[in-house]
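step 4 of 6: structure.
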Amino acid sequence: MPLTSIILLAATLAFAAAVVQALAALKSGRWKQGNTQLVLMAAGFALQTAFLYYRGEEVGQCPMKSLADILVFIGWSVVLLYFLVGSGFRLSLLGLFTAPLVTIMQGIAFAQGFKPYAVKGKINALVELHAAVALIAYAGFALACITGVMYLVQERLLKQHRIGGLFYQLPPIQGLAKAIRRLVGLGLVLLSAALAISFALHTPVSNPKLVFSWIVWGLYAVIAFLMWRHVTSPRRTAWLAVLGFVLPFISLWIVTHA
Amino acid sequence: MPEPTPNDSIRATGSLVCVGLNYKTTPVEVRERLAFPEAVVPQAAKNIRELPGFAESVVLSTCNRVELYASHELPEAMQSHEALRDYLVRHFQLQPEHAEAMVLYKLDAAEAARHLFRVVSGLDSMVLGETEIFGQVKAAYKTALDTGSTGKTLNKLFQQAFAVGKKVRNETTIQRGSTSVGSVAVDLAERVHDLKECRVMLVGAGEMSRTCAQSLLSRGAKSIIVSNRSYDKAVELATEMKGTALKFDEWEHALHEVDVIISSTSAPHFVIKKDQIEQVMRRRRWEPLLIIDIAVPRDVEPAVNDLEGVYLYDIDGLQAIADGNRRERERQLVVCEQIIEDQLSKFGFVAE
C-alpha cells in the first residue's frame, strides 16, 4: 500500500475511533466533554494534512482533480473549520457529528481510489486558488449541514420531552440556528470569492464545474435569503441546510466525471 | 520489621478525626444554633488546633452541616471525640439539656476520610450530587490553611478529597440534570435560548412560578414581566425581582416580546390558546418560545406544543423530568461509592 494511502487510512481510523468513542460514551449515559475526542480529531487532522502534502508531491499540484482527492480536501477543510468555529459551540459534541461525515467522505475516497494524473501545462495559481476557495466554501456548507442535524436532534428532544444525556450536551437551539445562518453565510461568501476569481482566469475553468458552482451558489443564496428574512421557521431552515448539501455533494461527483 | 498497616501513614503525623452533625442527624432549629458565622471560622480553627493534644484543624460550616476535621496525638480516639464535643458545647454556650440532646457523628481515620470524600463529591448532600459543597469545602480548607491551622495530615487529606471529588464528577453523571421543578425549567430554558438574552413573563404570581422565575434570574435571565389578576401583587413581585408589572388585560399584547412564559393562574379554563400563540410566533418571526404551564387545571391548550418553535411543558412533564434525573443520580451512586472505595485503597486508608 502506498504511503499516502497508509496515512489516509490512519486518519480515517482516527475519525472512526472518535465516532466509536463518542457513541459508546453516549450509550453508557456517561457522555462528558473530554480531551479524547479533541485528541482523536487533532490526530485525524494532522494525518489528513500529511496526506494532502504527500499527495500534492505525488501529483505535482494541489490534489483537487479527482473525486477522491476532492473528498479528502473537503474533509480536511471541514475539520479545519470545526477547529475554527468549534470554540463557539460545544467543541467535542460538534466533533461527534463532524467525525462521521469525514469518515464517510474518506471511505468513499478510498472506494474511488487515488489514481495518478498528469499536469496539463503550467500550473495556474489562480485556478488553484479558485478551486481551493470553492472547496473550503463547500466545507462551510458541510458544517452548516452538520449543525442543521444537531438543531433537528435537539429540537426533536425538546418537542418530545426526551430529556437525557445528549440533550444536556447539545447547545441551545437558538444558538444552533444562528450558527447555521453564519456557516451558510460563510460558505456563500467564500463561494462568491471563488466565482469572482474565475472571472480573472486566462484559462477558463471547464464549463460543467462552473455551471454547477453557479447552481450551488444560487441554491445557497436562496437559503441565505430565507434565513436572513426569517421567511420560514428555524426548523425548516435547518432542513434546508441539511438537504441543501446534497446538491454540492452530488455536483462534485458529476463534475469530476464530466 | 513489621509491614506498615494502611493507617500508619496517618498515625505517623497525627490521627485523623471528624466530629460533626448534619441535616440527617440534627433538625434545622438546632443546626442554626450550632452554625459558625463565616467571620468566626478562622478563629475557631485556631482554637481547635490549640486544644491539648491537637495538631491541626479545619472547620466546615454550611447550612446543612457543621463538621470539625482534626489531627491529634491523643492516646485514645474517644478522647479526641470528647474534646471536640466539649469545644462545641463551650463555643456555643449550650445548656446541659441541649448539649445532651446534641447528636454527633464521630469518625476516625479511614471512616473520616471516607466521609470527607463523600461530602466533597456531593454524595452526603441533601440534593444528591450537588456541586456547591465542593466550593464550600475548598473555602473551609483555605480558611484553615491561611490561619496556619493545617499541617501534613489535613493538607494531604483535603488535597486527596478534592482529587476524589473531581474524579467522581468527571467519571460519572452524578451531577447531571436537575432534581427540582424550578431547576428543570431553567435547564429547558438554557437549551432553547441563551439565558443572558432571555426575557421571561409570569402570567399569574403563584409560589411555584415565583420559584421558577427566581431560578431563571439567578442563572442570568435578562428581564422579567409579571402579570396577575391582582395588579398590586404583580407590582410587588415585579419589584422584588427588579422586573416590570403588567395589568392582566395587557399581558397578551406583550407575549411576542418574551422568550419564556411561565403560567400559573387559577383560571378554570385555558388562558393561552393555540390560535393566540400562532399569531405570536408570526410576530416573533419564528424565534423559539418556551412555555412552562405549572397551573392545575392547566392554563395552556396542549395543542400549542404542535406549533413550530413552541415547546410546552406542564407540571407533570417537569416533575417527570425531575424524578427521572433523581433516579439517574441514584443509579450513579453505586459507581461513585466504588470510585471512593478505590481511592481510599489507593491512598492507603483501607487495605486493598
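step 5 of 6: annotate
 - The CA atoms of residues 24 and 193 of chain A lie 41 Å apart.
 - Residues 1-123 of chain A form one domain.
step 6 of 6: archive
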